[in-house]
Amino acid sequence: MTTGPQLAPLSNPLVTIEQLTNSSSQLDGIPADLEQSIRYAGTTLTQAAGILLRLPQEIIAQAIVSFIRFYMGSDGGSFRLHAAKDISAASLYMTAKMSFFPQSPRSVLNVYAYLLSPSSPFLHSASLSIPPSKPDPESYYLSEGAYASARITLIHNESVLLRTLAFATHVSLPHALALTYLQTLSALPKAPTSTSRALVKRTLAHLNSALLSPQLLYLTHQPPSLAVAAVYLAAKEVGVKLGGEEWWTVFDVDREELGFLVVAMGSIGGWVKAEEEKWVEKMCPLTIEEVEEVLEPTR
Questions:
Q1: Mean pLDDT of the residues in the chain
Q2: Which residues contact 114 (CB under 8 A, 6 or more apart)?
Q3: Which of 5, 37, 204, 289 gives the lowest tally of CB atoms within 10 Å of its CB?
């Protein structure tokens, strides 16, 4: 008996309070604020690498969620044992491999070599230093020997990532749901208007920025709740009235959860600005050696 294609589930495994408060990084002596900073830096690195690889945002978002999941709980990875830059590359490589947009190890490693080189604007975006106007190819060139070593590290970290996640690599995203909700609420006319375009743009922007949230919204709330919160916040910003007084209850989201998510999404911009100002004179550590260097004065 044959079965037809099955729809992907609309839910994700969520982290527990114990996993949030007892991570391997904190057990290894990394302060919570430093752990949060490294996680944010790794997330933005993953986003930048995905853009340079010309991957769809869906693939990048799934890779970011896998990257964050890896470091959750006492059974997860630690930034003192698994460099953020390495797990970022492994997450992106693994997620792309399982999609319609697989990337070769060479492509992934070349992009990361560039992003982490002195010629890259990524390392200078939050600092006072200015990248050279003309990139120096020698600063991010991977020799055959360096590539062979980096490739072994990439494949090894992919296997470590898979084992730590117990091969639970599925990530359901709220983006398509949010558009469906907008259509259900009759907010998207057949002939798009400037208002409807702005509403869609702001909704997707909130969902993408939520990937950076210090509250780890993608690991603590299900996609329908995230979609509803993004739609609600975008509608408020654009000035669009949606449905009845409590339209979100139709999508099984209560007022308390909606309120928390709206506040969390609305505050991400301020938190990101504060985070970048924190590291304006030095770079956030992305390697094991850099983490140890930052922790050295606290010993």
A1: 90
A2: 52, 120, 140
A3: 5
Asked if pLDDT for residue 120 goes beyond 80, the answer is no
Cβ-proximal residues to 235 (8 Å cutoff; 6+ apart), any chain: 187, 199, 241, 242
Give the side-chain half-sphere CA count within 13 A for 238.
Answer: 23
Angle, in degrees to the nearest 10, between helices 105-115 and 32-52: 120
- Segment 18-35, tens digit of pLDDT: 999 899 999 999 999 999
Report d(CA 93, CA 168) in Å as an integer.
16
Give the closest residue to 267 by CA, choosing from 188, 218, 227, 210: 210
- What's residue 133's pLDDT? 61
* Cβ–Cβ < 8 Å for 198, 182: no
Q: Alpha carbon of 116 to those of 89, 174, 221, 230, 235: distances in Å?
A: 12, 31, 32, 32, 38
User: Taken in order 178, 180, 183, 188, is the CA torsion positive or negative?
Assistant: positive
Q: Tokens 């949030």 identify what position?
A: 20
DSSP state of 77: -
Q: How many other C-beta atoms are found inside a 10 Å radius of the C-beta of residue 253?
A: 22
- The owner of tokens 């922790």 is 295
Element (H, E) at 223: helix 223-238
Total residue count of the chain as it appears in this document:
299
Give the position of tokens 């792309």.
Answer: 96
The residue among 281, 169, 260, 176 whose CA lies nearest residue 217 is 260
Over residues 243-265, the pLDDT tens digits come to 778 999 999 999 999 999 999 99
